[in-house]
What we know:
The chain is an alpha/beta fold. The chain has two domains: 4-160, NAD(P)-binding Rossmann-like Domain (Rossmann fold, 3-Layer(aba) Sandwich), CATH 3.40.50; 166-289, N-(1-d-carboxylethyl)-l-norvaline Dehydrogenase, domain 2 (Orthogonal Bundle). 52% of the residues lie in helices and 13% in strands. It contains 13 helices and nine strands. It has helices spanning 13-22, 34-42, 51-55, 68-78, 96-109, 121-127, 138-148, 163-192, 196-204, 211-214, 238-255, 260-277, 285-289; strands at residues 4-7, 27-30, 47-48, 60-63, 87-90, 112-115, 118-119, 130-135, 152-159. The protein has a six-stranded parallel β-sheet with strand order 3-2-1-4-5-6, sandwiched between helices. The protein has a three-stranded mixed β-sheet with strand order 7-8-9. β4, α4 and β5 (87-90) form a beta-alpha-beta unit. The longest helix has 30 residues, at 163-192.
Amino acid sequence: MGRIAFIGLGAMGAPMARNLAAAKLDVAGFDSAEAAREKAAASGLDARASLAEIATGAGAVVTMLQNGEQVLAVWREALPLARENALFIDCSTIDIVDARAAHELARKAGALSVDAPVSGGVAGAEAGSLTFMCGATGGAFAAATPILEKMGARLFHCGGPGLGQAAKLCNNLMLGVAMIATAEAFTLAERLGLPARTLFEVAAASSGQSWSLTTYCPVAGLAPASPANKDYAAGFATKLMLKDLRLAESAAAKSGAVTPLCAAAAQLYALYEARGGGGRDFSGVIQMLSGKA
Ligand code: NAD
């Protein structure tokens, strides 16, 4: 596959690139922020100061950036530089319209392309245990598999271009709404004199059961790995949940889907962010709902 150019060495990208290097793949990285490059280099990555330097002749280009605008700009610059028939993989969470525009750029340049957003957060990126949700042609997905499996534990081929992003947004819509429902239920239980542990045990064995309850319970002391046990240190930051819900809202508006709970959840996380919760775990929204923050 030749050299892999990894672009975007932030909280997620740097550990992902490190896992590729640890698997003995030929990988060089670039980030437009000097601080990110220095941090990545200090952790042993081959981090260079120019995109052109690593994209020229690359067999594969992986992007892990903040938004679709950045992804499109980087792909526009890297596509003419990479090897003929190179493979382009975007692991960022971006608007489906931007993801499909990126695929179209790649198709016109004769490159293979995959949208491969992830779930699993920074801990999953470090452990190499991410879940990848991929949108691509069958050939592009097959070509990306040897790279993605070095960074993740599970790969899903969700369908054609853009459907990886669709799966990511639909999943996080469920998660964002379910967390607020779980937080509301615990807030009501407290008012009714029902102990949190009792509600946890009943709901975990009943139809209220969900990942937000049993793995990520917003009340401290009930689920061992929950950020609630660490005063809502993220975890999955509220600002990232808000970003994903806004992308889901945008996709709903463009496709005509009716998603009122997505809109309501986005408003509540935006309020929590405005009150200083943007960097805290999204399950901390319970503190706002229960009047504790
Ligand atoms: P981050 O801000 O830590 O990293 C992004 C990096 O991209 C930054 O270092 C930035 O300098 C760099 N960058 C921006 N424009 C660039 C350009 N033109 N050229 C080169 N580098 C450029 O973000 P992150 O937390 O690593 O998240 C990356 C993506 O992964 C986002 O789309 C996010 O929504 C998604 N995601 C994040 C998490 C998480 O827990 N952090 C979980 C799942 C998905």
